[in-house]
Amino acid sequence: MDNKEFSKELEKRTKRFSARIIRLSTKLPNTPEGRVVRNQITKAGTSIGANYREANRARSKADFRSKIKICEGEASETQYWLEVIVEVNWLPWKKIKAEYEECSELLAIFTSIGKDL
Which of 55, 29, 46 is nearest to 103 (CA)? Predict the structure, then answer.
């Protein structure tokens, strides 16, 4: 797979991840605290794909690097919120495990891309 194909596939993958995070967020409690976490995880989880799409349309290598670092940070933040959701017993591990693992893979990909620049 060449770089262009990889980029297109990763854009699709991050978009699917965004949808998964949105669906997961609807399962959180409708309390003040639940709404805060829902907002945070939705922002972070959907920002990964949005920033990656922007990175692929960057005007410079520095702009690309900056967007990739944002993707990395947002993936890490998404993992954090998934951990919090389990910690406060809003959802069991088995309900968020797939999203957590996908987020871990995305984090590893963006970390690797960032190091290669």
Answer: 46
Report how many domains make up the chain: 1
Scan for tokens 């945070």, then name that residue: 40
CATH code where residue 102 lies: 1.20.1440.60
pLDDT tens for residues 43-84?
Answer: 999 999 999 999 999 999 999 999 999 999 999 999 999 999
Radius of gyration, alpha carbons of the chain: 15
For 25-54, write each residue's pLDDT tens digit: 999 999 999 999 999 999 999 999 999 999
Q: Which domain, by its residues, includes 62?
A: 3-116
Answer whether 106's CB lies under 8 Å from 17's CB: yes
